């Protein structure tokens, strides 16, 4: 059964994981976000909602 032979697939998985961790991820994280979060105050309603069935 070829699924049980980890010889080529384990190496491919390790190479993929290392390339993502050390090459691709720092490049992706270096991009700045276009919509930076701002400090907005939450506006809440002064009166609670009145449900018709209560």
UniProtKB/TrEMBL annotation:
A family per Pfam: ATP-synt_8
GO biological process, any: proton motive force-driven ATP synthesis
Name of the featured protein: ATP synthase complex subunit 8
Keywords per UniProt: ATP synthesis, CF(0), Hydrogen ion transport, Ion transport, Membrane, Mitochondrion, Transmembrane, Transmembrane helix, Transport
Predominant place of localization: mitochondrion
A GO molecular function held by the record: proton transmembrane transporter activity
GO annotations of cellular component type: mitochondrial membrane; proton-transporting ATP synthase complex
């Amino acid at each position: 059964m070829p699924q049980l032979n980890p010889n080529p697939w384990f190496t491919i998985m390790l190479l993929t994981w290392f390339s993502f961790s050390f090459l691709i991820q720092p490049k992706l994280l270096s991009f700045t976000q276009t919509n930076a979060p701002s400090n907005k105050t939450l506006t809440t309603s002064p009166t609670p909602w009145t449900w018709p069935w209560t």
